[in-house]
Write a structure and sequence with these properties.
Strand order of the largest sheet: 1-2-3-4
Order of helices and strands: HEEEEEEHEEH
Number of helices: 3
Bound molecules: zinc ion
Shape: rod-shaped
Strand content: 15-25%
Length: 147
């Protein structure tokens, strides 16, 4: 069992070791906020769970309030980073994944999701459609032959 880190506290973050692997704190059951402590650069990052595993995104345009006072834009406290993570571009796949218009699986549950003008289709549904078309063609060939 991994120890949860209290990355909310600036004092605790100050004492954390520099390491490649981020320190994570749980925000919700599927979202974690991470703190990556590098030698010169530290960053907040957000990690969220999908069917195929975790995905991570670094909050690129802001730094944690380790040395500078949090200002809600370029310097973020833990709470501000959580808010930023939760309000990330609402079109972003994390918060609004695209779904197959046929089976309704999300883009994270399928290998490929093809985008049409008004809808989407996944690799599984495409395969199913090809089988249906192939069967249809076979039946019409058989009908022509039997006629
Ligand atoms: Zn589908």
């Amino acid at each position: 069992m991994m120890m949860p880190f209290n990355i909310q506290s600036r004092e605790v973050r100050k004492r954390l070791e520099v390491r490649e692997k981020p320190y994570f704190a749980r925000v919700t059951s599927s979202i974690h906020l991470g703190y990556r402590k590098g030698k010169s650069i530290t960053r907040w990052l957000v990690r969220w769970r999908t069917k195929s595993g975790y995905r991570t995104r670094v909050l690129e345009d802001a730094v944690p309030d380790d040395r500078l006072r949090a200002n809600g834009s370029s310097v973020l406290s833990y709470q501000q980073a959580v808010i930023r993570a939760m309000n990330m571009d609402t079109n972003d796949a994390i918060w609004n994944p695209k779904h197959c218009s046929f089976c309704n699986k999300s883009q994270f549950e399928v290998k490929v999701l093809i985008t049409g003008p008004n809808n989407f289709i996944c690799d599984e549904c495409t395969a199913l459609c090809s089988r249906i078309v192939a069967e249809h063609e076979q039946r019409s060939t058989e009908r022509q032959r039997d006629a």
